[in-house]
Amino acid sequence: MQGISSKKRFYKRITTDTTTTLIKKETGGGGLKGDIRSITITNIDSLPAVGIEVFIEDEFTAVTTNALNRKYYFIKGIDIPVGVALVLKDVDIPLKFNSRFFHLRMKTNHASDGTDPILNVIIE
User: Fold this and answer.
1) Residue in 31, 7, 11, 8 with CA at minimum distance from that of residue 103
2) What is the pLDDT of residues 63-108, one digit of tens each?
3) Which CATH class is domain 4-123?
4) What is the side-by-side order of every strand in the sheet holding 4-5?
5) Are 39 and 123 in contact (CB under 8 A)?
6) Are 102 and 56 in contact (CB under 8 A)?
7) Angle at the Cα of 86 from the Cα atoms of 117 and 16, rounded to 5 degrees
8) Which of 14, 3, 26, 20 is CA-nearest to residue 101?
9) What's the pTM?
């Protein structure tokens, strides 16, 4: 997982049309990485809207994202227009999860012009 993390923030730039693991499942420990307060997703592309899904996923069938793994969606089928930030806050949507059991992932769908998206993600 490539990104920049600080004490309480994680920054990630997504430039491909794929599923990205934002917080990886821990095989040991207390599973505290899933104690997040907010997720900000900003479409910084110069082209049209990008479709996104944010979800937690287990490893029921495979370690990588898989159609047979169980997914629990925070949001699904949302389009973020150019220059717009979507902010998910724990007070609006319960964002906490146990990272001993789940990965936090985001799937991006092609921008409406068919190109790969450019998104910034900040997790606090």
Assistant:
1) 31
2) 777 788 899 999 999 999 999 999 999 877 778 888 888 999 999 9
3) mainly beta
4) 4-5, 10-14, 119-123, 38-43, 85-89
5) yes
6) yes
7) 15
8) 26
9) 0.82
